[in-house]
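Please produce the structure of this protein holding flavin-adenine dinucleotide.
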Amino acid sequence: MVGAHARGRRHARPAARRRGDAVGLSPACGVRDGEHLRGVAAPARDEGVPVADPTTPPAAPAAPTEFDAVIVGGGLSGLVAASELVDAGKRVVIVDQEPEASLGGQAWWSFGGLFLIDSPEQRRLGVRDSLELARQDWLGTAGFDRDEDEWGRRWAEAYLAFAAGEKRSWLRGKGLKFFPVIGWAERGAGMAVGHGNSVPRFHITWGTGPGVLEPFIARARAGEAAGLVTLRFRHRVDELVVEDGAVVGVRGARLAPDDALRGVGTNRDVVGEFELRAPAVVVASGGIGGNHDLVRSAWPERLGTPPAEMLSGVPAHVDGRMLGIAEASGARLVNGDRMWHYTEGITNWDPVWARHGIRILPGPSSMWFDATGARLPAPLFPGFDTLGTLEHLARTGHDHSWFVLTQRIIEKEFALSGSEQNPDLTNKDLRLLADRLGSGAPGPVEAFKQHGVDFVVADTLPELLDGMRRLSPGDLLDTERIEREVVARDREVEHEFSKDLQLTAVRGARNYRGDKLIRVAPPHRILDPKAGPLIAVKLHILTRKSLGGIQTDLDSRALGADGVPVPGLYAVGEAAGFGGGGVHGYRALEGTFLGGCLFTGRAAGRAIAAG
Ligand SMILES: Cc1cc2nc3c(=O)[nH]c(=O)nc-3n(C[C@H](O)[C@H](O)[C@H](O)COP(=O)(O)OP(=O)(O)OC[C@H]3O[C@@H](n4cnc5c(N)ncnc54)[C@H](O)[C@@H]3O)c2cc1C
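Below is the modeled complex.
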């Protein structure tokens, strides 16, 4: 049975809105209406400083600034920078091209996974971690090999120390709590010195992405009430204002109001202009994942031909425009060819944004086949090596691939990345959480199984293979080969010792208490009728993160082509390659993106506050 076709829709679904409530945010997704913009101590004129007529001579000396900082982007990194500035009593204006409903940016949609080293949660599960082991993993994963990696390396060292030290207590102090079972993301390429996490480190925030945002939105709101923070939505920055070599403000277009709900694409109708000035401008505009043209043009040769078809794992506002704007004002962009896209994307049957895809966070047991039906080689098992798999698939010349699994595997091993796909964790709903731990697949996974266009569910292997053929172009898929592989793999399950390295990996994973409890199914025959029905999932490439960006020093000051800070300009979060223009190098250990927003946003806020 192949799932029903996705329904397009303009508004986010009610469940997503309810989740806004559950984390103490308004139904309009975490913010009050636009009325609050009036009547605060900050300027009441929506335009800020009037735009100078380009035909008149340059303006006289800058008028006293009304703000200490302009922050471009109301995502997590911008909000963290704003919170630090509020703590220091500074006046901040946050501008965002999206409506108020989307405050929080991508982080709201995120799973809220955070990379921590040697935490009490890890220790409680018997995981022994250390800064040395994490550094080994990070450097093996990053593969830094360029001159422009200098700042990325320094940020990596600083971030590792943060993740092993102050990060957890700083977040706990802000009210964040973690789900007690730690995930084991990116299990690696199979060698101690290479890519991957040697141990589980993916700490899921209780409340997922909205839970991570909550304290920073609250701080910005408190700042707003105190007259320190001004929020300007539907303000799109098109240009940085540069005077005497220093960035002193931003200029751009005021966009027409749009009542779209969170994440839904909005109009780009220009209704006016604006200019805002401050001695510090922070670029917190995110990456390029929503702009497939930019992704394709930056696609590196080592990943093969850019995919003809991709799903979007991020909303359309992740458009990458600000990077070019910052570059035009002297900032140095580096590592644009380093990106983090997933190979386990599925078409959202209930999309919020265009080409909306969801990433499966897979446990290790599903069999993985390329578009022709060849099994992926060891150690390209589900959840082991994202970019290794992407590179391998690129070499096959086909963008999609297949998971083949059982009902027993989907129930225990499929999680879907995204706050709205995990209502139990996002809403901190213990009753729903108990359902996850019980029998049956979690509700959102079951919904995909029933309605997703990429799912085939069948009682017998011939029926399953028929369904897979129907979803394959031409006669590309060699289903006889899949059958041979499944039967052979099943013979290997019968005894304790196996030459099938995936089975060895599955048995190894179950030595970890967390995996045994909720993430890894006991090894069983795929063709065991008691484990059925059989399931096949067609997987697509899903765009997500940019690993490169604006090069910054450890204060998040943007550096110019000469390596010297551009006066007045800062960059944070994904726009800064999460620090230094590329803290991850070529690959990531996961949970390091939200963490990178926290760390770089905090650094910028503190540096600006310190003057
Ligand atoms: C579904 C999903 C799951 C994820 N899960 C995880 C996870 O578990 N762990 C993890 O570490 N990471 C995760 N991530 C990644 C992480 O959420 C993002 O990398 C991070 O939130 C990016 O934050 P940011 O502040 O850099 O940018 P964004 O959140 O993209 O915010 C940028 C803001 O800038 C605005 N903007 C852009 N250009 C302009 C302009 N010219 N003028 C005005 N405004 C502008 C945008 O409208 C937007 O609001 C996930 C992401 C998604 C989408």
